[in-house]
Amino acid sequence: MYPVIRLAKEFIKYRKAPALTLGDIHVSHHMCLPWDIDLWMELNNGRTLTLYDLGRLILAKRSGLLAAIKRHSWGLTMAGAVVRYRQRIRMFEVVEMRSRALCWDARFIYLEQSMWKRDGTCAGHVCYRAAIVGPSGIVPPMQVAAAMGVMDALPIPDWIAAWIESERLRPWPPMQDAANK
């Protein structure tokens, strides 16, 4: 089940937090609860992605993205993710989550998030590409940025540029050759 109560708690907790500009980091703290674990008594990999929502949506609020989405009747959807899991997060362990917007290209906004253990090690990292959608399809990120009052684009890091290129080369729909055999 989606952690609606935890998300509501985050919105209440950060309702008066100062606004963030593009590239600023939203920091939040989250505990791995019993319903977040898998058979190995650690944070489930799928639940990890759901918990990242808790940081990403508050980042969107604090940066003005949610207000722009509401004002223009747009929607927000995830169009892809690249994930690294490096350290186990055990039940009742508290992690620090860091969330920020990295950059955008002609179609997508790229968001980076990470979870950090108390000893300072990074437990995991994800980069999402998000699309803002309207009645006609994807809204160009420059239009979204302008609606947020942002005029300057952030530079695209080399590793994001490589991911964009790898996605361009990736076949879609997948496994077409296997289906034809």
Summarize, please.
This protein is α+β, with helices and mostly antiparallel strands. The protein has helices at residues 4-13, 45-63, 65-72, 141-147, 158-169, 176-179, and strands at 26-31, 75-85, 94-104, 109-116, 122-134, 137-138.
Would you kindly provide a written description of the structure presented here, covering whatever features stand out?
With 181 residues, the chain is an alpha+beta fold. It has one domain (4-10, 20-170): Thiol Ester Dehydrase, Chain A (Roll). 33% of the residues lie in helices and 28% in strands. The chain is built from six helices and six strands. Strands 1, 2, 3, 4, 5 and 6 form a six-stranded antiparallel sheet that branches. Helix 1 (4-13) runs parallel beside helix 2. The longest helix is centred in the N-terminal third of the chain and has 19 residues, at 45-63. The chain is globular, with a radius of gyration of 17 Å. The mean pLDDT is 95.
SSE order and pairing:
Elements: H1 4-13, E1 26-31, H2 45-63, H3 65-72, E2 75-85, E3 94-104, E4 109-116, E5 122-134, E6 137-138, H4 141-147, H5 158-169, H6 176-179
Antiparallel strand pairs: 1-3, 2-5, 3-4, 4-5, 5-6
Helix pairs in contact: 1-2
Task: Name a few traits of the molecule.
six-stranded antiparallel β-sheet; Thiol Ester Dehydrase, Chain A; 33% helix; alpha+beta; 181 residues
Task: Name the CATH architecture.
Answer: Roll
Task: Show unreliable segments.
Answer: none
CATH class category label: Alpha Beta
Which structural class do the helices and strands define? Answer: alpha+beta
For the secondary structure, the number of strands is 6
